[in-house]
Amino acid sequence: MSEGGISILLKAEPIFHIGSFSVTNTLLLSWVTVALLIVSGLTVSRAIKSVPGKLQNLFESFVEGFLGLMEPVLGSRRLAEKYFPLVSSIFLFVLVSNWLGIFPILGALGFFEGSGGHRVFVPMFRSPASDLNFTLALAVFSVIAVNVVGAKELGLFRYLGKYFNFSNPINFFVGILEFFSEFAKMISFSFRLFGNIFAGEVLLIIMGVLSPFLAPIPFLFLEIFVGLIQAFIFSMLTMVFIAGSVAESH
Amino acid sequence: MEQESVKMIVVGATIVLGTMIPAMAISKIGSSANEAIGRNPEAAPRLQTAMILAIAFAEALGIYSLVIALIIKFV
Asked: B11 to chain A nearest CA, in Å?
């Protein structure tokens, strides 16, 4: 939908096609995010020193802080270290993708499509979380991971017994309700992240059109903060659900 | 009334109602958490985690209405 030069699209624009699979600009930026995380991870892990350099120091303080956040909720340091890779990967992925999405020059790189009166500018990079596909995929992955982790820890039958509890009618009803609330969690996760980031993008576009000089600065700071908070909330909620699913059923 | 004006009014109403009620919910959560921390400062980290969780759930509901308002306006 385009009015007065502003084009705000709910769907991500495809950049190129591999066979019949169209690669959108959000997918492209999420690939860049993954490449950045892998390269920085390998750089540090290949050359671990006893007296850490700057990058290694940064990662070490992050690991310490994150484990410190996880420990009170999960109960023990052992559990925190066990589920740290899953939760911190989600955190870092969402955080870096959010921050790369508002990175200064990336929004202006792109090409023109169409001809004559219908020329539209297609940006090559767009915040991955502003695409519902990205957030929905991450949410589904998160909820399935929580359930698989719980099933592994408690054993499949005991874990399914949490949902399908035949001891008395009330427990049965509550179990079915819990089962359906897993799907509600998927929707809730995806729409929380999508809504925050998409709304932030719309805000930045409108600000850029109304008053491009100086006025967008506080909104960019807001977006940096929101990106951090949403990554934190996504990963912390996943961790809290993991803590709930490996706990013994009451 | 034409469709455009009805659309405008509905978008405005959606976002107004959709942020008022989660705002009240979040303020209630925050105030009860602060009260509890004041009564028992040692338990502050656990209370804080529970508070942030509850605020995230309440905020998500506000975000749902924002998304619907954006969809109505722009799609």
From this structure: 14
